[in-house]
Amino acid sequence: MRTRSVAVGVVIFSVSVHAASAQAVAVSPGAPRCPEGQRPMIDSSVVTVVIGAGTAWNRRVFTDDDRKRTQFYADAIRQHFTPPTSLGAAPTLAESQSTAWGGEYSRHSTVGGKLVLVVKPNGRLRDKFWQVQPLSAAFATAVMQATVAADAARDFEGIPGAASNRMDDTLVVQIRTIENDAQPNELPMMRAQLQSYIADTPAFVTKKGELYYPINAGDSGVENEGEMQVIVGSDGKAVMPSSQITRLDWRDFVSTMRRAIEGSTYQPAMSNGCAVPGVVIERFKFTMQRQ
User: Fold this and answer.
1) What is the C-alpha radius of gyration for the chain, rounded to an integer number of angstroms?
2) Which residues pair with 190 in a beta bridge?
3) Does this model's pTM top 0.85?
C-alpha cells in the first residue's frame, strides 16, 4: 500500500525465509534535476536547531542520571559550536502528513542527525561518528569541530553520576530542528533559515529491493515488524547515511532492512517539473514460513 502525501509515500514489505545478500551503493541527495528553464517551488522558514538532551539511541531516556549525563555532553558541544555561514545547497525536505509508527511527526532537513560519542572513563573522547548523517556537510563539520574542541578543552571530564566501576560512555545526542521554542531538555544551538520544496507529487518506490529473513534469526522463528524513514535523492536512489530506522524490535533485522532499501529504486518527488529529494516511510513485516 502507498499513502500519497506531500513528498512522502508509505510502502509495506512482506517477506518469507530466504538467504542472500545485496550490493550497497553510496549516493548523495544531489541538486534538483530540472528541465531547462524550470525551477522547483520553494518555501522558506526560520527554525531553531537544538541538541536533544533527553534522547539516546532510538528510545527516550527516563532516569535522572541518563538525563544529566546526556545534557552534560550536549552542553559541552554547544559551548564550542560556531554556526556555519551557509548550510549548503541541500534543502529542507518536505514534511510528512502522517506519523511514523513511533508516533513522531516526520521531518527531514539539512541539519539534524544523531551523533554517537564514545567517552572513556577519564572523560576523554575515544570515538565519534554520525549514526544518522546530516544532509548539510557544513553543519555536520561544525558539530564535529565543536565535539573535538570540547574534548581538547577537557570539557567531557567530570561526568555526572557515580564514578566507581565506570566504563566507556556510549551516547547518542540527537540534533534536530524545531519551529517553536526549545523544551527544557533541549539546548538551542543556532537559528537558521531553511528552504523546503513544495512538492506536487511525493517520492515513492518503483522497484522493491529483495528482503530476506536473516539467517541468524532463523532458529528463533520470530516474526518482526520494522520501519525506516528513507531519504530519496533526486536521482531516485536512497541516501543511506541520512536515512534512519524508526522502529525495530529485533536488531538481527537491521542489515536485511537496509539491504532491501539499498536494492530499491524510487521515483523522486516532483516540484514544478523538477525531480527533488523526498522522504519515503518504508514498513517491513518478517514472517517465518512453516513447513
Assistant:
1) 20
2) 49
3) no
